[in-house]
Design a protein that fits this description.
- Helices cover 46% and strands 15% of the residues.
- The protein has helices at residues 3-15, 40-48, 53-60, 109-148, 158-161, 192-201, 232-246, 263-283, 306-312, 325-336, 341-348, 352-366, 373-391; strands at residues 19-22, 28-31, 71-73, 84-91, 94-102, 173-180, 211-215, 219-225, 251-256, 287-289.
- The strands form two sheets. Strands 2-1-5-4-3 form a five-stranded antiparallel beta sheet. A five-stranded mixed beta sheet has the order 7-8-6-9-10.
- Strand 9 (251-256), helix 8 and strand 10 form a beta-alpha-beta unit.
- It is elongated.
């Protein structure tokens, strides 16, 4: 019997309560014999050794990952759960997991004090074990880096792939990339070491056993089974946002690549996810997938620069001058409304005469034929890229 189980059994005998000890991802590390009331969550922990997505989301709804003391959960009729007390287990300031007790009948202050003492002891045991866990996470980050950023002719070493069921591609995988602002609140640039610490802090919130976590100097990468792209990942993004906020960082946006069934496709998914994250930030949305980019996919692989604007439509960069902002906004509305001046004027809340004046000014800036054929298509693309550049 391991030390964690011994501590749990001792506390269960002392309090005549069932005890569950979970890791940071709510995977049971120790379960005691049943004492007292029982609910569906307890049965599932015993039989399936994991929590459902709904229970996972409910557990982290009270932010137990950052709690400094016991947290009381009321019963949840929708999940058929009894009330519980969760005690986050910390050692040397680092979260090691959670100790759970059913709070029916209600625990006394003395009971919770005894449970907190046991939680501290278990946390110390887990801290000693976690010294090797850090190495595991570092190895995982190295693997993600090799998978997503290798030279084109390089194949990842076989020993790095051997123990990763996700990379057997029994089911498709996808890459999620979350961008962080490259400068923190104090004006200091981010670095790989700081981002590594944040990645390790949020490792508990990703789907354990079904994902790979890595990072760059201002990005967090998560390779995950495509079937898990749903509510389960909201907990991961929430945890990442919390970690960024505590460090004075800004979380920009998340991009998802296309599904992958080979290593080559996985690397492409990583490239696509980075671009989707960049576009998501420019559009001021939290997350975008590659398949949701629409026309913005045409700018993939192009530098977002004034030179590119000029290639798309010579003279378009003039529209970025502050003095020409009303003309640029009028052209945006005109194109969005398919050239319908009545609708465009309504969108701009101006008289059509005013809109016609601005369109004449556009012709003076851009030359004849800007609203016709290929020149019009080029100008629409240039204006779209200009918007992305301004907001990126």
């Amino acid at each position: 019997m391991n030390d964690v189980q011994q501590y749990a059994d001792g506390l269960a005998d002392q309090l005549n309560r069932s005890i569950e000890v979970d890791d940071c991802g709510l995977k049971p590390l120790a379960l005691t014999e049943q004492h007292g009331d029982l609910d569906d969550v307890r049965v599932r922990s015993i039989l399936q050794r994991h929590s459902s997505p709904e229970v996972f989301e409910y557990a982290f709804s009270l932010d137990i990952a950052h709690a400094t003391g016991p947290v009381r959960f009321p019963s949840n009729p929708a999940l058929q759960t009894l009330p519980r007390v969760c005690i986050p287990m910390r050692a040397r300031g680092e979260l090691q997991g959670y100790l759970w007790l059913i709070d029916s009948p209600p625990l006394t202050d003395a009971d919770i004090t005894a449970a907190a003492g046991t939680a501290s002891a278990i946390a110390e045991v887990l801290h000693q074990q976690s010294q090797s866990t850090t190495t595991v996470l570092d190895r995982e980050a190295q693997l993600v880096s090799v998978l997503l950023d290798p030279p084109r002719e390089t194949t990842p070493p076989a020993e790095l792939l051997a123990d990763e069921p996700l990379l057997r591609f029994t089911d498709p995988a996808v890459v999620l990339t979350t961008r962080l602002a490259a400068i923190d609140a104090d004006g200091e640039p981010l670095n790989a070491r700081a981002v590594r610490a944040a990645a390790q802090e949020v490792a508990y919130a990703r789907p354990l056993g079904h994902s790979l976590l890595g990072h760059g100097e201002d990005t967090i990468h998560l390779i995950v089974g495509a079937d898990l792209l749903g509510d389960r990942l909201r907990s991961f993004r929430h945890a990442l946002a919390q970690a960024a906020r505590r460090r004075g960082w800004t979380l920009l946006a998340t991009g998802a690549g296309q599904t992958a069934s080979t290593l080559d496709e996985l690397r492409l998914s990583g490239m696509h996810s980075r671009y989707a994250a960049t576009v998501a930030h420019a559009r001021n949305v939290e997350q975008l997938s590659w398949n949701e980019l629409g026309a913005d996919v045409v700018f993939y692989g192009l530098p977002w620069t004034m030179e590119t604007l000029e290639i798309l439509f010579p003279g378009a960069s003039r529209l970025l001058d502050a003095d020409n902002s009303l003309i640029r906004e009028s052209l945006d509305a005109y194109f969005d409304c398919g050239g319908d001046t009545r609708r465009a004027a309504g969108r701009l809340s101006v008289h059509r005469t005013t809109l016609y004046y601005r369109l004449d000014r556009a012709q003076q800036l851009l030359g004849e034929g800007w609203a016709q054929g290929e020149r019009r298509a080029g100008l629409e693309l240039a204006l779209r890229l200009a918007m992305l550049i301004r907001n990126a």
